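Case study 2.
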Amino acid sequence: MQVKITTQQPADITTPALVALCFKDKVRDDSAVKAVDPALSGAISRLVQSGEIKGKAGEVTVIHTLGKVKPERMVIGGMGKETEFTPDTIRRSVAAACKALINKGVKELAVVLPEASTGGLEPALLAQLATEGAILGSWSFKKYFTGENQPSGIESLTLAAGSFSTAEVQKGIDKGMVMAEAANMARDLVNEPGNYMTPLDMAAAAEQVARDNSLEITVLDKDKMEEMGMRAVLAVAQGSANPPRFIIMKYKGTASSSVDLALVGKAVTFDSGGISIKPSEKMENMKTDMAGGASVIAAIQAIARLKLAINVVALVAAVENLPSGTAQRPGDVVKSMSGKTIEVISTDAEGRMTLADVLTYAVNLGAERIIDIATLTGACVVALGEVATGAFTNNQELVEMVKKAGDDAGEYMWQMPMYDEYREQYKSDVADMKNVGGREAGAVTAALFLSEYAGSKPWVHLDIAGTSETSRDRGYWKKGGTGVPVRTLINLATRLAESS
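Prediction:
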């Protein structure tokens, strides 16, 4: 999407659609509405008076101007109650306007940046939010459609800066584009079908990101992983004809040799459950079990593009979990890279096994902080649905930073308990631990299992089983991959870079 700036007055902007963002019951107070309404003979005011326009959150009203002003359409984008305003309101309102206009075949629009009643947000942030909303809201995954019956997205966005500094607005546009494009890249990867997103395909995608952004990358094959002792990863992979890959991406934003932040992403490119096979109904959705890996690849791309003063490594063990004559069995005992042994109770609890080895690698690398992101448990979906990501930690200061980064991104994080008493559930009679702890508190016991491999390193586990995709259109998300928590990770890296 091309994003431009104009300093023209709203009524003078030549555009197929001019969007004014208005609070509920305050539409007539908006400066853009005041500028355009008289030329439309008070049409907007009459629609407000009749109750057709209220300014409710997500409400979009399109009014044809019939040549009376330069914009061909005047669009009122509702922001809801002023008392309930958050920065994410801007994203959601712009996205809603984009979706409505896309359905009408509109490819270009202009958005008037609101100058009042937005909590004193800086111009750069306003521009960033509007840009993110437009790019996120215009996304669609149409790669495998052969017809042309699908509406195209927004191709050009113009931000009307008003009295704001154009330099500040441009700064916000630049950051917003990086943030949203990274999230959309993750959405593209998540929506790929399993036959086009094997471990080799995921490694190729990472290599392309590395080439485009001057990142250091190493991709290790099965033999090298065996040498390193990554037997928990390999146990999951052994049932598939598609070989595993361990992806190591490095970004150096400082002269230091330290690894300030390790991002660990679960990447089971298709998860049948293995021998402990899943029900066939909706198994096709298991192509998305690599969303954690997609998110860290996308996040390190954005971190590099933003040139943040921080050293980050993204670690992804890409595997496919299938049943076959070579697959691991329930009851097997596997020795992980850390030396700890795991009794495999369920081959469908495979993600935590791959993460065990990758977390060990991150600890051995000397990472100062570790965040792992995984579509780990159905239990987290039961607990939090599609709205909030479950956050688990051994370090309260770090998880508070993650939650704040999520709030700023509009990606909700809810901290879950990590009491030691839950560890009893995954004690094994034949190994150091079992890979499941039973039905009760399944998301908690899975997180505690991972904590065994993070050790004393400041660590946060994000269970995105519910939030990595949405079953319906919601906000700036369409059905399918959401890109959560890419923007949270970028915000976290930004804050860490600024505080160092």
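The mean pLDDT is 97.
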